[in-house]
Every structure is written in structure tokens, then in C-alpha cells.
Amino acid sequence: MRIILFTGKGGVGKTTVASATALKTAKLGYKTLVISTDPAHSLSDAFQKELNPYPTKVTENLYAMEVNVEYELERHWNVIKEYLTIFFKSQGIEDVVAEELAIFPGFDELASLLHLLDHYEKRDFDVIILDCAPTGETLRLLSVPEVARWYMNRFFGIEKKLLKLVRPIAEPLIDVPLPSEDVLSKIQELYVKIGKLKEILESDVTTVRIVMNPEKMVIRESERAFTYLNLFGYRVDCVIVNKVFPENVGEYFSKWIEIQRSYLNEIAERFPVPIFKVQFKDREVVGEELESLADEIYGGNDPTKVFYHHRPMEIRKEGNYSVLSISVPFIEKKDLKLLKRGEELIIIARNWKRIVFLPQSLALKDVIKAEFRNQRLNVYFA
User: Would the pTM of this model clear 0.85, i.e. be above it?
Assistant: First the structure.
């Protein structure tokens, strides 16, 4: 199986590129599922077909779906939602507001990833493509397994047997409803799935592709995304530069062509991955037009190919030291902060924070030193 995630700043053509890629993989004979995690849900517009919150057939070998949070909660996680609603009501929050709060932040992203896990385990598709929300939301999406595991460890780490013993004594004394066994079972199930998700997202079958335009603000945001994707342990295997003006577009756009040319050179210098370019189109790319767009992007290449093999995080031995090496491009040494707390290594890069759960071999050791060299953060343990 092959999993490809597409991300990029809003308006760069990410959904169009993801749809075109999915159509090409389907044409090549791969049974393909494309999932939209973007609340805007423009996937149905790209395929010109109404989509459901479950796999909907688009063409031969191609299925698509748009995740619906309410549908997911009612279908799979109603037990947790009902408990959270009761919990918020017990705190004096109005019914309607309590029901809204019960849809905890990030559940739409988590629901998308749980679909990915479900189909990965069923092996009912050869290729799964995620059309992710704009860059900032995608980073949150990809950090869901790690952040959720952190919360699970701290706030839901109560044993069912212990709760069964204390409930009769505690419930009359406190004004907070304690979760039932069904709720705890569902939370435990969620916890197990989150662990599996993290393994899949960091495995060799998964890569991320950044879609951008040759514009200053878009390039800067793409650089940030590239940095944080590396920081979170996800591999970017190519960059797709969309809406490049053709050289013969006319005198009116001559200045734009010159500007884009300088930005294209900058992109080539700054991103150490293969770069594919797509010309600006004189019409909307939807429906059948997606096929020719895919041919323009990938040429004779199979879109399922991993275009760049690179591990953003690795552990190695150097003499008496164990070294955790993390790729952190586009960041300066002064922007990095480091803290070790038990089995957690906390890395702060500007306004982003990564909590790395260390393997036992490192968790029991002390951080001796850290160095930033060749766009990699090397942390030495002994």
C-alpha cells in the first residue's frame, strides 16, 4: 500500500493536484481512495460529483470521500460524545453549548486519520491520498497522534478496575460524573488506534507532498511546513509548484514572469527534494481536465513512486554516545530550544513545539550536549 498526503497554503491548488494524482493512479490500475480532511470540501467540486462521508465511486478504480464530523461521532464515538456532553452539563454549561464542546478540537482531523488506519488495515485500496487542510491545519492534523497520546497518558490513564472500586464511594462526594466502562473502553480503543496511526504515518509507505505557488509568502509558509514536517518525523518526497506563467503569456505579464523566475530559482536552491512545475491554466481544472494536469506534473513517472528517500529522524551510535538526529531545515540555531523531561524530549522551534517520546534506550540516559549542524539537530545522550 502507498499513502500520499498533499498540503499547502490555501488557494495554491492543493485539492486539484491531489485529485489529479488520484485520477492518474487509478488510470494506472491502482485501486485508489482520496480523502478530504479540509472542512471546505472542494474535492466534490474537482471531480464534479457529490461525495459521501464514506468511499464513493468516482470512476473505475477511483473512490473519494469527504469526512463529516457529526457523522463520524454518531457512527463510531457516540459513547464518548454523550459522556462529554453530560460532563459539561454537570459544570453548568447550557445544553446546546455542551453538545458543541463535546466535539473536542481536532476530532475532524482525527476522524480522517482513523479512516486512513481503517483502510490501511483492511488493505482494500492500493493507494490512499489525503487532501489535507491548509498548511497550519495539516501540521495540527499530523501531530494529532502524538498530542492525543500525551493527553491520553495524563488525563485518561485511569485503570478500569480502580474506577470500578472508587465509583460507589466517589460519585456521591464529587459533582463530576465519572466515565462508565463503555466510555473507558472506547477511549482505550482510541488510544490503541492512535499508536498504530503514528507508526503508519512515519513508515516508508507514507510521504507528504507540498503544493505551492512561486510567490514570496507562499514559499515562506512552505518552508515552515517543510521544517515542521521534518520535526514531526514525516517525509516530504517532492514539491509541486503550481500556477507558473508560461514564457509566451504576453507583454502584460512580463514583470510577473521575471518575478516568478527568481522565485523558482529560490525554490530550487532551498528545497532539497525533486520539484515538479505546473503551468498556469487559462481555464478551471476540474473533471476530465485533471487527467492532463496529472500528465503534466508526473510525465512518465508513476505518482506512487517515492521521489526522495530521506529519514527526518534517526538514532545512531557515536563512540560512547547515542545520538538522536532530527532534520530541521530553514531554522537557525538561535530559534531552537531543548528540554528533557523523563521519557520526553521537548523541542521548541520558534512558535512550534515537538514532544518526542524517547525509546527506553534514550529515556534512561542524560542529555550531554546538543549541536545544530547542516540543518540537523543532533542530541547526544550518555
Answer: no
